Amino acid sequence: MKIAIPDDYQDTVDKLSCFSLIKHHEVTRYRAPARDLDQLVERLKEAEVVVSIRERVEFSRELLDRLPKLKLLALVGRGASTIDFKACTALGIPVSTGKSNSPDAPAELTVALIVASRRNIALEAERMKRGDMPCTLSHRLSGSTLGIYGLGFIGQLVAKSLAGMGMKVLVWGQEKSLQKARDAGYEVAAGKDDLFERSDILSLHVRLRPETRGIVGPADLARMKPTALIVNTARAELIQPGALVEALQKGRPGYAAVDVYEEEPILGGNHPLLKMPNALCVPHLGWAEWDNFELYFRECFEQIVAYERGEPLRLANPDVKRR
Questions:
Q1: Does 19 share its domain with 93?
Q2: What is the reported pTM?
């Protein structure tokens, strides 16, 4: 079979041990994103199977209509907001999905960003390389308040880790999150406003859905302390467009640590947050580590093997009637 793997940013998929499951096929990988829809079609038009790495490519109806040879769209992970599942079903394209949810890697990165930002690690490391004098005092975590917006799997790990460093945990979110907070002995905020006002560090762990898109706006950010840090390793679209940059310029909150962006990857330093001294930015590294890749890609490639053998698939669109 002809298999296409677009947007392998890390240029590592063929180095995974699980790649052995599909290497006997004609596999074509692309590291850099396509410059436009026409180039993307040119890359994918001959493929019978396309591997979708999380949400790096938007599989719209417009794109899918131009891929008549596509027989299987194989997801890396459990779902993607960038796939038109109704169009896939209408066109007879099965979408196979992963089954695992591994919160460890994104939780670790969240904690790392918090420590690095509060203790000015990146800033002072670069100054030291240049031979400059140290120039800052940082903020310790112990005794300060960690706000968690959404106490799901990742939020729970972040809260547990930082509570172990002496932070007081304050939680807001859906009732399920609030009950988990009570069970764990964390404080429940009086409301969303209370969470933003009292947090020294506020970490977003809300799942992106239509009803949560833009759930954080300028008024929320303006309630934060001028010494506070907001951390977003979830989804950029949780914050209203432009609101974070404007808030940082105004000084409330004073700092941000970000791993997610409306359009990825960020190339050429072309993002306003990268020009701000009070923002620590990394390129969506939350899930990008070897064990995670082996887990998620193995599940994806096992579905391709099952398709090749005519075995049942784990489908995100089970009502599909295949081409």
A1: yes
A2: 0.92
Task: Choose among 234, 238, 231, 226: nearest CA to 273.
Answer: 231
Phi, psi of 247 (to 5 degrees): -65, -40
Tell me how many domains the chain contains: 2
Radius of gyration of the chain (CA): 21
DSSP 22-84: TTTSEEEE--SPPSSHHHHHHHHTT-SEEEEETTSS-B-HHHHTT-TT--EEEEESS--TTB-
Residue 305 belongs to a domain: yes
> What is the tens place of the pLDDT at every residue in 51-73?
999 899 999 999 999 999 999 99
- The answer on pLDDT for 169 being more than 90 is yes
Q: Are residues 93 and 131 in the same domain?
A: no
Asked, as a colleague might, if the bond just before 318 is cis with ω within 30 of 0, I would say: no
Nearest 10 degrees: Cα torsion 260, 261, 265, 269: -110
Question: Residue 319 domain-assigned?
Answer: no
Mean pLDDT score of the chain: 96
- In this structure, is residue 244 part of a structural domain? yes
3-state class (DSSP) for residue 96: strand
Catalytic residue list? 235, 264, 284
Q: Does a structural domain hold residue 314?
A: no
Neighbour-count burial of 36, counting CB atoms closer than 10 A to its CB (0-12 exposed, 13-18 middle, 19+ buried)? exposed
Spatial separation of the C-alpha atoms in residues 151 and 103, rounded to whole Å: 12
Cα–Cα distance list, 57 to 73, 98, 108, 140, 298 (Å) = 12, 17, 26, 39, 20
CATH number for the domain spanning 186: value is: 3.40.50.720
What are the E-state strand segments in 192-290? 201-204, 229-232, 255-258, 279-281
Q: Answer whether residue 322 shows pLDDT above 90.
A: no
Mean pLDDT calculated for residue range 205-213: 95
**Are 84 and 138 part of one and the same domain?**
no
Does the structure show a pLDDT above 90 at 218? yes
